Amino acid sequence: xxxxxxxxxxxxxxxxxxxxxxxxxxxxxxxxxxxxxxxxxxxxxxxxxxxxxxxxxxxxxxxxxxxxxxxxxxxxxxxxxxxxxxxxxxxxxxxxxxxxxxxxxxxxxxxxxxxxxxxxxxxxxxxxxxxxxxxxxxxxxxxxxxxxxxxxxxxxxxxx
Length: 160
Hints:
Blueprint: H1 3-20, H2 28-47, H3 53-94, H4 102-132
């Protein structure tokens, strides 16, 4: 397993698992951002490579995909057990009659949360690249030669 995959697995697992736990999922955006930052941190620590914001976003995309898969595997069943009954009872108490059941609405809400986990993990990858990227833009260009931009003789103001 290469270092990028390992970093994405660790960051995605943090984002997915912490976003799926019922009490902790109130901070799901925070966990997703932390998962993206963690993926960048793990990758830069293991490779000592410089990372551009584009590289950080791509690693965040991979970590976000892993995080979404974990979130849906854990969070969707939990949300269906807890959320579907709650949505159905709240809708009936409010007197709202819609053609969907609470289960379908719970699945739609879980998918919207999954999109949020993905987006915020990519954002975490961008933030992590800015923090831990180690100057991924490269070395600055060398200074210009001494007579750059001046007359061919290299002297200014010499009378003609």
